[in-house]
């Protein structure tokens, strides 16, 4: 399986537009034919380009519906269904579902759902380009390649791929907690722009959810050749439990804020080192199984522990 997606840019972690949002005369073309938007136009938020779901996906042949009570858009085309809201972006094909793009969520602008163009490539199966000089988003349907749901040339079984997908989704759940709940300690633990967070807010419900996810990661049952990956995932689950212990010790007053932050920073270094060795092992697995995840999804999968 080979998916040709472009490399991701830094993820936008806020679902609500900030003051850095602007129109910037962004244009969109599909197979070099300009897309005309009737109302809400593409925008740039924190250096990330967003396009209206309805204008793009309807042109691509999707049927678009909107559930106002759930603030959720549903897009369907054949056996493919995409659901999008400000807390989740998910694609289902032939009954198999997975999350898209980690912490890259849609936003709502003037009552319209907007999707980052980099996540658009995963959701649509098209290749997507960005011209910085002209502010043009180019969508090319002819460059589509086999999806993540099929691997006609590889040796990996569906059970092996499901195992990796489950691990990926669980890891993204933890990152999603950090972003959606603005969990300061967890944001510092993950870093990526939040290294300077100087406060720790103890959230019992967040820790309980993290512990539940850690248990699920630890108890994943690897299939076939994916077995050598499980020790890395178990170690990551242990790391999440250490994170919980640090924050709870601080909450009980057993260490100072400075001491807690120092422990979190050390734990982050351990996590990042684990992520590097895991990425090497995962890449070796991909090569052995003739499975190739490139671009957006591949970058996120190889970086799932980081």
Give an overview in words.
This protein has 306 residues and is an alpha+beta fold. The protein folds into two domains: 2-143, 2-Layer Sandwich (Copper Amine Oxidase, Chain A, domain 1); 158-302. 40% of the residues lie in helices and 21% in strands. The protein has eight helices and 15 strands. The protein has helices spanning 53-59, 117-124, 158-180, 184-190, 204-218, 230-251, 257-289, 295-302; strands spanning 2-3, 27-30, 33-34, 43-45, 48-52, 63-67, 72-77, 80-85, 88-93, 96-99, 107-109, 112-116, 127-131, 136-140, 292-293. The strands form four sheets. The protein has a five-stranded antiparallel beta sheet. The two termini are 24 Å apart.
Main traits of this protein?
globular, 306 residues, 4-stranded mixed sheet, 21% strand, alpha+beta, 2 domains
How far the N terminus sits from the C terminus, by CA atoms, comes to 24 Å
Shape assignment: globular
Number of helices: 8
Strand content: 15-25%
Overall SS class: alpha+beta
- Determine the mean pLDDT: 78
Strand order of the largest sheet: 6-7-8-9-10
Rounded to an integer, what's the Rg over CA atoms? 20 Å
């Amino acid at each position: 399986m080979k998916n040709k997606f472009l490399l991701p840019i830094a993820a936008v972690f806020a679902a609500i537009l900030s003051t850095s949002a602007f129109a910037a005369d962004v244009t969109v073309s599909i197979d070099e034919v300009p897309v005309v938007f009737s109302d809400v136009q593409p925008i740039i938020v924190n250096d990330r380009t967003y396009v209206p779901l309805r204008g793009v996906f309807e042109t691509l042949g999707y049927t678009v519906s909107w559930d106002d009570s759930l603030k959720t858009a549903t897009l369907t085309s054949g056996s493919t269904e995409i659901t999008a809201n400000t807390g989740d972006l998910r694609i289902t094909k032939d009954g198999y579902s997975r999350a898209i793009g980690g912490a890259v969520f849609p936003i709502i602008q003037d009552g319209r759902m907007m999707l980052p163009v980099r996540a658009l490539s995963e959701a649509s199966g098209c290749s997507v380009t960005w011209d910085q000089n002209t502010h043009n988003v180019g969508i090319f349907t002819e460059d589509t390649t086999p999806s993540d749901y099929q691997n006609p040339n590889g040796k990996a079984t569906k059970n092996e791929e499901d195992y990796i997908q489950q691990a990926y989704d669980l890891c993204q759940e933890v990152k999603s907690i950090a972003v959606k709940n603005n969990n300061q300690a967890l944001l510092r633990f993950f870093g990526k722009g939040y290294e300077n967070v100087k406060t720790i807010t103890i959230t019992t419900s967040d820790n309980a959810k993290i512990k539940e996810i850690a248990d699920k990661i630890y108890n994943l049952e690897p299939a076939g050749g994916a077995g050598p990956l499980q020790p890395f995932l178990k170690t990551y689950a242990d790391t999440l439990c250490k994170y919980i212990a640090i924050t709870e010790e601080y909450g009980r007053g057993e260490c100072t804020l400075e001491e807690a932050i120092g422990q979190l920073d050390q734990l982050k270094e351990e996590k990042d080192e684990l992520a590097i060795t895991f990425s090497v092992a995962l890449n070796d697995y991909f090569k052995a199984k003739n499975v190739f995840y490139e671009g957006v999804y591949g970058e996120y999968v190889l970086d799932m522990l980081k």
